[in-house]
Amino acid sequence: MVKIAIAGGSGQVAQEVIDALMATKKHEITILSRKGSARDMTSGIHFSAVNYNDKSDLAEALQGVHTVLSFIQLLSDTGNQSQKNLIDACISAGVKRFAPSEYSSSEVTDMPFYAGKEVIRDYLKKVNENRKVLEYTLFQPGLFLDYLGFPYKTSKHIAPLSTFIDFQHCRAIVIEDHDFFMTFTAAHDLATVVARAVDYEGEWPVIGGIRGNRVPVSKILEIGEKVRGRPFAIEKVKLEDLEAGVLKTSWTLQASHASVDEEQATNMLTTVLIAMLLSSAKGAWDVSNEFNELVPNYEFVQIDDFLAKTWEGKP
């Protein structure tokens, strides 16, 4: 049993991981909260009020903590200061292990919304450059397999998210003359492996790849046509157009939010789609398998089974 602190505990990925940690019935879990201190009597989880702008306050909250898992929202962390302060506080408090807010691709190439990940990776290297003062790993599961079930929700906490492979409408956008590998890992599998990583007694690898399924896009389309029972409409784009920020397709990603008008949403999602296609073509979503090797007996949800189950009987 170890004491674990969770930063950004209200997020979707954090909630998946918290559930997996609670299921082990081994650890004492504290959520670092901006709102106030409390205890959830039904789950036993503690909530500790912290000020992310105050390193000494953070360090006090982390006394006796063994592992800190960060799920801080990158886009809302101005200058990545909250995570930097959290890292400094971990070192001051003698925390053994830290995992920054990653949980996606291995690289951040062409994804400006992930720029904060690179900043924190560099910061962790810097604090350890003279001697190791904080053990850390970058949990990288690739893309959530659950997203291929859009618009249906296939995990407890992760909201559906559309991709350039649209199973609902049997269509896809691919890059001309490029068939690249991607890693898809079910959200539940990521959470379970993170929980097992907390129990791992050896030293964490810096790169923490979690590879549920490594498949080329052509294979995903092949499986898709099989489970959907009809061919997919494929639209091909040129790499050079994407590099220029141009997307020549008849459709883009789907999403809606009350605070964003339709035009803004379309522009934003087009930017995200271009980024996803470019980064995928350059190998950013083809992650490594360090934690597969450290938990060799774990059986991941397979993409064939997931898609067959998710889309069975769907219109």
From TrEMBL:
PANTHER family: NMRA-LIKE DOMAIN-CONTAINING PROTEIN, NMRA-LIKE FAMILY PROTEIN. Keywords: NADP, Oxidoreductase. Belongs to the NmrA-type oxidoreductase family. Isoflavone reductase subfamily. It comes from the Eukaryota. The keyword NADP applies. This is Related to 2`-hydroxyisoflavone reductase. GO terms for molecular function: oxidoreductase activity. Gene3D superfamilies: NAD(P)-binding Rossmann-like Domain (3.40.50.720). Pfam families: NmrA. Residues 3-246 form the NmrA-like domain. InterPro entries: NAD(P)-bd_dom_sf, NmrA-like, NmrA/Isoflavone_reductase-like.
